Amino acid sequence: MIEQQASAEAGKTAARTGIIDCDVHPYPRNAAEIRSYMTMPWRERYNGGGRGFYGNPVHGDRLDARPSQGGPSGSDPELLRRQLIDEYGYAHAILMPRAFCNLHPDPDFGNAIAAAFNDWLADTWLSKYNPDSVFKGSITVNPQDPQAAAREIERWAGHPHYVQVMTDSGARAPFGQRQYYPIYEACEKHGLPFAIHPGTDGMGINVQPSPGYPTHYIEWHTCLSLSFQAHLVSFITEGVFERFPNFKVVLVEGGVSWLAPLMWRLDAEYKALRYEVPWLKRKPSEYLLDHVRITSQPLERPDNDKHLLQIFDMMDAERILMFSSDYPHWDFDSPTRAFPKLPESMHRRIFYENAREFYNL
Prior knowledge:
- The chain is of the alpha/beta class.
- Helix content is 43%, strand content 11%.
């Protein structure tokens, strides 16, 4: 019987050869599910909730992704499997929980939230709901307390289904600065990429990357790419990739089309200003190609598909772009509709091989 079950599971996995989705959001059914992994006094303080403001004024999730029995979108593993894994024949979904732990002024509270989400994800989506190993997880850390974040990475390193470390892009300082190095040292030690996802920019104790605070969600959401650009330039100019030569970064849900012109500008600046950053041994764009990958959603889609393909060519998308859907959020990108027709080799690299290589899947 065991052999038959193993054969059946292997058959399911073998059929899922097409796609690795690098941004899928699982949610707990309610705040109590997370509180059950907390000790006092955090269990009493945690009320769940989202970012606090800059919420989508209509709805933040796909309405058809809400479970019929109640609970938020993304909280029903069977529904998620039907709408995503089975619908598109996924090989793997990289799970990105939304803990919002890095906006709190009390670092111990942020650490407790991060740890509880990691315990919850490991017990549910990475084990109970994961008989075929289709789900791979992200270790949530609180970068406001880098030493504690490094200990959290050590706690989970070696888990068969945790494949990266993640945090939100909201921060008090750009991520290249040295106070974050304990996190990167732990990531490099265990071969775990460091993923940045938007979510807490300008909230709690984090700075807002635009000139002051925007008024509307549409402003805030459109400008999320600004913090990604600042973090990326900081990683490179501070010399993080020289100090940690095997450290890797994933930019998730921060936009795509800005990447090439930013690198052109940084390479041009480097020609005249390299004396300021003598620890850099190569052009900034070369560090980018070796150490950084970027996910596709939200994919800026011009009216003329040729223009997008030109952007892909300029940013070497075949090498550094990885597909993501952002399921179950309102701006979900379908694997079959978000992209124009791609050359076969580029399609294979973006939808599967780049992620398989980067995550060692």
